[in-house]
Amino acid sequence: MRTVVIKDCEGIAVPNAIVFDIAQMDVKNCIGCWSCWWKTPGICAFKDLDEFYHQYITADKAIYFSKVTKGFVSGDLKTIFDRMIPLYLPYTTHKTGESMHVPRYDKYPDIEFYYDGEFETDAGRQIFVDYINRVFYQFYSKNVTVKPIAEFMADGGNVA
Amino acid sequence: MNTIILNGSPKGNSQSCNSKIYAEEFIKNMKNPCEIKCIANTDPKELARYVESFDAIIMILPLYIHAMPGIVMKFIERLERTTTEGKYIGFIIQAGFMETAQEKYVERYFADLAKQLNYNYLGTVSKGEAAGTYMFPKMFKKVLGLVADLGVIYEETHAFDKDIVKKLGKPYELSKSQLRLLKLVHMIGLDNVGWHKFLKQNNAFDKRLDKPFLY
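The joint structure predicted for all components is written out below.
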């Protein structure tokens, strides 16, 4: 089983996984140019995530470690979400009763999403969890779990 | 009320920037048009400090993956909770997908963010199926007119007009008859005509279904 880790918080180690540490990456922001849809299908105009795209789309599982900033994912992680668009076709499908992107690939990794940080209210936490679930539903990941990082530790997760 | 408009599109001041069009439309018929600043062209830390001198912030932004673009979140990270009472924040989202239920996740977040920042929440105005605004401005004449009216009423009342918000927000979900129509359009292959035209113009039509990262 191939696992890819996207790390946006400190002090976490996952053995036997390919790790992308956002803090070390300086990922370019999506500029909405749509090159990946109508000029070079599936390929972003920026090349900085090419290795990431390959590892992500060929992985069975992606584990995210996200910090919580202002009750949301960081701008850095949001940029990674924005940059996922090349992995989908430009078309829209309404099969589910609502508008959705159309997959470009046959399969997408399962998602384990751990968040590190406090929320001011339980309602705020629910907004975050609902948002993350929706993102990976839109991204066609079949099995998605969203949990506080303490549960990763409790399950025997390693601290770097 | 001293209000600043923030254009949250990564396209900034480009001619293909829909948020810029909506922002300019919003202030067009105001007696004293608000200042518009571009998040894309400004240092987030400096901009966060700059907006503190205003009574109200209105962000006009595209929907990226059910929420604000990365650059907007990088700016939001820099905002600090205000100790001054009576500040306001509101949002106007223009999105690609037709139904504005797509925006409900970030609408909830923006309402929560206003509380976190101790700002009064003006609300979030959502407009779906807006991606073509800059390409076909004539088709969006009515919509842009509503945005201009929204701005005029905002200047007078310091609030988003409920009727206009409702009009812009339609449809919230796709009705059964809309879904039947969309299915029909799909069956006869009309839904992708626009995309295919652009792909052909760019000599990319044959590659449209490529899976470049499977190696």
